[in-house]
Design brief:
Elements lengths: L2 E9 L2 E11 L6 E8 L4 H6 L2
Antiparallel strand pairs: 1-2, 2-3
């Protein structure tokens, strides 16, 4: 599974990180990309979840 932190975003007083991970579909077997914007300390937890 590919994973990558793409950008660090800063808005007012909060730092945010945009994270993208590649997930395989159980039905078709194709890969899809899931994107989210999180606080930097939560990124590792998000990548470790299925």
């Amino acid at each position: 599974m590919a994973k990558k932190t793409v950008a660090t975003l800063q808005t007012k007083s909060k730092r945010l990180t945009k994270a993208i991970k590649m997930v395989r579909s159980e039905k078709s077997g194709a890969y899809t990309f899931v994107e989210t914007i999180l606080a930097p300390e939560l990124v590792d937890n998000w990548f470790s979840k299925k």
